[in-house]
């Protein structure tokens, strides 16, 4: 079972950062594995995109990194803080706790 929560933060620069929190329930229902991804949309953009794309100067770092490090780099270059990430994850946890109670 897969659960998803999306939260959009607008930074002082006008950049919108979408934090996508995905949780996958283990097959034995014992735990939820959480993955966090970020997408950005600058004021001139029409759609959200990855912070580090093919034309980004740090793309070479992303290509050689393991998935966890790659995700960390994407978050770092998006411009949001760990506080933003924690807030999105807390909302995800709260949302899923409420669903589990029903």
Q: Report strand order across the widest sheet.
A: 1-2-3
Overall mean pLDDT stands at 85
Largest pleated sheet: 3 strands, antiparallel
Rg, rounded, reads 15 Å
* Contiguous runs where pLDDT drops below 50 for at least 5 residues: none
Q: What shape does the CA trace take?
A: globular
Tell me the number of helical segments per DSSP (H or I, 4 or more residues long). Answer: 3
Helical content, roughly? 25-40%
Portion in beta strands: 25-35%
Structural class by sheet pairing and helices? alpha+beta
Structural summary, described in words:
This protein is of the alpha+beta class and 102 residues long. 37% of the residues lie in helices and 28% in strands. The protein has three helices and three strands. It has helices at residues 59-64, 67-78, 82-101, and strands at residues 2-10, 16-25, 32-41. Strands 1-2-3 form a three-stranded antiparallel beta sheet. The protein is globular and about 40 Å long.
In short:
The chain is α+β, with helices and mostly antiparallel strands and 102 residues long.
Q: What are the salient characteristics of this protein?
A:
28% strand; 3 strands; single chain; 102 residues; 37% helix
